[in-house]
Structures are given as C-alpha cells and as structure tokens.
Amino acid sequence: MVKIVTGDASSIPEDAVKKYDITILKHPLYFGDEEVTGIPPDQFYKRVKEGEMPRTALLPTVNLVNIYKKLDTDAILSIHLSSKMSGTYNSALTAAEMVKDKVKVEVFDTGLTTLGEGMIVLESAICASLGKDIESVKSKAEEVKSKVKMVLAIPDLNFLHRSGRLGKGKAFLGAMMRIIPMITYSDGEIVPFGRARTKSQVREKIKDEIRKDLTEFKAERLKILLGYTTDKGICYELEESIRKEFSIDELHVLHLNPVVGVYLGPEAWGISYYPVGG
Amino acid sequence: MIDNIDSKIFRNLLKGGYERLSSQKEWVNNLNVFPVPDGDTGSNMTLTLKGALSGGGNIVENSLLAARGNSGIILSQFLKGFVDAVEHKKQIDTRDFGIALKEGEKSARNAIRNPVEGTIITVMKEASRCAIQSSRRERDFIGLLEDIVKTANITLEKTPEMLPVLKDAGVVDAGGQGFIYILEGALYSLREYNLENDIVPHISKRLHIWKTLASIESIYRIRNLLDIGNHMVKIWQNRTIGMDLAWERVLSLIKNRKIKTIPALKQFARRLISVWERKIEYKYDVECLVRGENIEKHSLEEEIAPYGDSILVVGAPFITKVHIHTNEPEKIFEICSRYGELDDRFIEDMEEQQHEFITAKQDMETEIRQRVVAILPGDGLCEIAKSMGAEVIKSLNPSTKEVLEYLNSEDLHFVLPANGDAIPACEQALKCSNKNGFVIPARTVPEGMSALLAYNPELEPNENEKNMREAIKRVKTGKVTISARDAQFGIQMVNEGDIISIFEKEIKVHKNIKEAVFELARKMEGEIFTLFFGMDTKKEDAEALLVQLKKEFSEKDFELYYGGQPFYQYIIGVE
After folding, report:
1. With an 8 Å Cβ cutoff, is B520 touching chain A?
2. Which of the listed residues A128, A145, A162 is the one where a domain comes to its end?
3. Does pLDDT of B236 surpass 80?
4. Which residues of A touch B474 (CB under 8 A)?
C-alpha cells in the first residue's frame, strides 16, 4: 500500500495520523540555541507570548532517508511545503534519489503550507487507504492542489515579516492603522488576500471567497480545515458562521503546529477548504 | 477632392506610409511568427521604405538597395511594379492608381519562389482588387484609400484562417499588417490627420503570461491572468484588429463553457508557446547584392535553391539582390560570386534573433496597474492612507483641476474623496482626464479609510470597485466639532462656539468635548471605534480621553490616531 509521509507543518491531528497511517516528520525547532522540536503547542505559544523568539531549521536529508527506508512499503508519496517557502521539498528529492533502489518515493510540492498542505495530505491518505496505486494517489493530490484554497488571518505580521517570506504582501499588508492582514498562496508564494479591521470582516471575506469558488468549480459541498495558534474560539465562531450557509462534508479544527506558529505568531487563525461534489 | 496625384504627392503618400509604419514598427515586429519567429518584419519594412525615400533619387532603385529581409524585399518589388506602371505619366487618377496597385502585387508575387496565401501578398491582392473596383466610381483619392484600407483590414483579419501557424500563434500576418500601415499612412497624409500610436504588447510579455497559464495549478491565478488578458484584448481592440486573437479565443471558449478544465487551458497555452519557440530549420538570414553584367536571375535562383528557403532573387541584370534562409551562408556567397561582384553581404543568426525576440526582458506592463488617489483633510490622515498604499491629496474639498493633476498616468485610477461635497469634482476630473477609473463615493473620512482598506492590488479592478463600495456601507461616522455660527438644525438650536456631536442626521449640543465623544460612543454600534483627532486637539488630551473611553465602555474596542483635520476635534468611525 502507498504510504504518506509529510512534515509536522501540515498540523495533521493525532487521530487522523493513526487512522490513515501517516508518517509525520518533525521539523527542528529552537528557542535561541535550545532545541524544542516537538514541543506541545500550548507551551510553545506561551513562551512566544512571553517574548521568546522561535526559529526553525532545515529538516536534515538523513531524517528523510531513514524514514523512507524504515517504511515497509514499495511506494511512498512524500508531501511537502511549498518549495518556494522551504527547502524540505529539495531535501526530499535528494533523499528519494538515495533510496530509489529500495523504495519508490514520489515527492510532491503542495505549493502551500500548513492547512492547505494538510488538506492535500488528508485527501491523499484517504485515497491511499483505499488501496489505490501511487499514480492514483498522486493524481488525487494534484486534483486537491488545483482546488484547495487557504486563507490565513495574521494579526501580528512581524513573525512572517522577519522570516522574509512575506514577498509581495510586504508593502500592502503593513499599515499605520491596526488591521488584520489576510494572506493566501498563489504559485507557491504568499500573496495578499485582503485587509480587515474586525474578525467578523475576516469571516465575511472568507465566505465571499468560498461562494466564488463553489461557483467556479460548480461544487456544492466543502471539506474544511480550520486552524488557530492561540485562540480556538475564533475558529468556532468561523465554523458556526460557515455551517449556517454551506454544506459541509467534513470539518476539523486543528491546533496549528509550532513550526507554523514560528511564522504566524500568536492570535493567528485560518481556513483551507476543498470544494467537492456538484 | 483630390482626383489626381503627381510624383511629388506620391512621394508624400509614401512618406506618410513610412511615418505610420515606422511608428508602428514594434507592433508589426511582435506579430512576426512566419516564416520565422524572429520579430523583424516591422523593422525590415521600415528600413526598406526609409531607403526608398532617402536622397531624393530613384525610389525603386533605392528601395532595392536598402531592402532588408523577406518582407523588405517583397515590399521593394511591390514598389517596382507600382512605379513601372505609372512612370510614364505626369499625373495619375484613381483608376491608374488601382491598376498600379495590381501591377505592384503581381511584381511582388512573381519575386517569390513559393507564394503562400495568408501573408502580405494576399493583403496586396485583395487591396488591389478593391482598388480597381472602387476606382470605377470613386474619383477621390481619399475615398479610394479609405475603401482600400477597409478591405485590406478585412483580409488581414482572415489571414489566421488561411495560414494555420498564424492561428496557433494568436496573431494576424505581420507583413500584411505592415502593408496596411503604409496604406493608412498614405491616407492620413492626404487627410493631414494623425493617429496615436498603439501600445505594443511584446511577444515576450505575452509568452510570459501564456507560460504562467501553462504551468498554472490554481484557478485563483487563472482569474488574475484572464483579467490581464482581458485588459490586453481591450487595449488592442480599440486600435487594431485582433492582436492577441488567442486571448480572445480563450475568453470566448471560457464564456461558452468549452474550456472547463485547467488541463484543456494549459494545453491551449502550450500549443501557442510551441509555435513561437519552434526550432527553425534554416538558421541564417543571408542577403547580398550582386553587381555584374547580364546576371541570370533564374539560374542563380535555381543554383541556391537546394540550400534553403524564403528565396528571393530580384533586381536588374546588372544589380541583383539575393535573399535566402540557409544553414550555409558561405556556400551562397560562393555561388553568387560566380555571377558578379558581391556587395552588402549580410548574415543574421535568426536563432539568436528568435531567442532575443521571445525572451526579451520586459516589465509586465500589460498588467493593469491600479492606483488609489485619496483626498483627505489632514496630514495625519494622509500619512495613514499612504501607509495603506494610496496616493494622497491633502484637501478638504479640492477643485476639479487639483484632482485632474493626479490622474496623469495610464494606470487605472480609483478616486477616493472622503467628503460628500468633493464627489462631483472627482467625477468631473475623471471624466475630463479620459482615463480609466472609478470614483468611490466615500462621504466621510472613515468611509474613505474603510474603502481604502478594502482595496487589494491583487484583485481585478471591477472586484476592487465592488469591494470598496461595499466597505463604505460597513462603516458609520460620527463627528465632534465646535459650531462656527448660529444655526438651527431641525428643532436643535446651535450657537456659535457650541460643542456639538453629529451622527447621521442627529446633532446635539454638549457641555464639553468628552461628553460629545461619550455620547457618540454610546449611540454608535460596532466592534471597533477608530478616533481621528484633529489639528486643534492636543495629543495628551486625546490620549487621556482614550483611557477614559476604554474604562467607561470596557466591552468596546477603541483606537486613536492623529488625523490632523481642521474643524473637527474628532472624527469617529465605527465598524
């Protein structure tokens, strides 16, 4: 059976990891020189709020090689963060080449991060659990990638700004007035999605976008992942508002993994949705 | 009415043609995909005409000597046929002109070894056919040329149907377009009327867009791209017939729901790219002049024929121009040298030319650049608006002229008055500027700020307009001021010097500023209160007031910014 490998930035919840036998690689995480890889989110965000500066490091290729070798299967789909945002994709390519005599590893660039990446991982894992071959699982991943959209609301943009990954959004999303910057991804890079002043405006903008995409894809239902760094309540408000209007096949609220929190900071939240049916 | 022309007027016609073509040369270059996508048709035709007119000597001889490239030489042969037909006349009328045009076409066609329809010779053929027919009743050269240009354009529009490579590449024929520019220029020289130049959509830019489309993975990007494409088509439709026919086709396919899937769209893009990037069979464009006696053009042509294509051997027995696309330039020169002395040897690496042509670094000017011009009454407000990406005019109520000065680029403008009274001036300015854009009717500072926040350069203009208009509706405005005169508002009497709060139509007099602000904080509903304090309010006072507000209305969220506006101590936005 095809096995799915991904990084912890995808924030896949524990029960799904077990159910679909997904292998999660942990990205190295530090506060200063102290390595805190795998730190529980609550502890992590508490330290960030207290002013400590977290950072991530590149996932060593050897970790990938070891995982690929260890998995008892003949085919692996290794699903990763946008190659324009992280070096993991390239490390995975190298690792895949190194193990090619033992196992076939297809490396997949999601062009996304966190919740968007997570959606692709989950859907691919479901497909793999049905016993589909590697080509089918990969084309499922492609299909989800072409339809999934992720929107993140990031009240404190400093974390992303510092990382240098803000790209085009830099000029647009900084302002002398307090705003809630919203981002999305396009071609593997961050692009501004909009600026809101209140949480309810964020909700409305997200719902507008969902409506547009449902029309665009002629879809009727949605699979949704919601995620937050410190405030679970915002996600529940968003969930309630979305459920009132749309038909939901599946919805999970995820606590975003600290390796994502490094870039999003506290108070951030977001959504990824995948239009289906119709 | 101009019913006859002499050699002097003819020269002027040609000069008009040269000027028009020269100004449109880049446009023609960017259509050039056949026979080789090397992007020089416009330049070559221009050089040829320039040469023809230089020094005041014989037009035909000059043009032949100056002729460059396939299209240039074909053009020179057209001129030869035309001039030969009228040379013996002092003056010609429209009938003579029609016949001469036909002779020009024949001469051009005869020079080409394998004439291909859907190119310049097809446009020449239809133009001359129309000229002969029209000249039977039309005595006026202006009327005649108008008819010819019209017919030629219709023919040009059909070239992609006649020559599939044009259709795949999404363009009309370059040489045909160049020829039409010459005719147009001739017509305008009689009318003394000039056309503006077209914005040239460089092929490298267009390919960039097509390539993005070919590699696209999310529908979100496609939307953006289509907007750009739409915009390009709009620019071009105004001026000349279908420059990027391919875009129009994609758009119509989408409209008719023929392209449902991204893969189909990608495939479409890939085909277009492959036409422009195709490997060319013969690498060099080789040209030379052969000077000798009794040069056997036919035998020379047969001798070089095995070594390439696009062969042209033209001129007189004592001076012959040779043109060929080949991989063996030296061999060609060797053969030619057996017929006479070689002059003006010319070799151009078309592969390199093609590479430069299709990869030239261009800014993505085809992207619609959007600008927001906001009119705000205070320096603090202006700074905030600038930080959110707007250009600002600091004014309470600007004149049309003041606004007009800011609408000076080809970008698409959103004009954002933050004052109901300024809306007419803004609308007037936009109208006068003749520029693309929208006035977003924000009536107050908070409405203006809210509209500005809703703007996103990543979105297409219409979407921005909609978002900005909707944002206005989400915000409510309250103001605190000191009355400048005695007045009556409904039942409310206000005396000069009274402190008043204004919210919607309700005006109230208060003991002090704090009370006025508190009244508004109580009355207005929303999640977030944004206070802009004016030029007459001290920062310390404003900050103290903020603390009191937060204490009194702990369930509400307050923010304070320096606005610097006159008249109003506080402007408050609630959303």
Report:
1. no
2. A145
3. no
4. 201
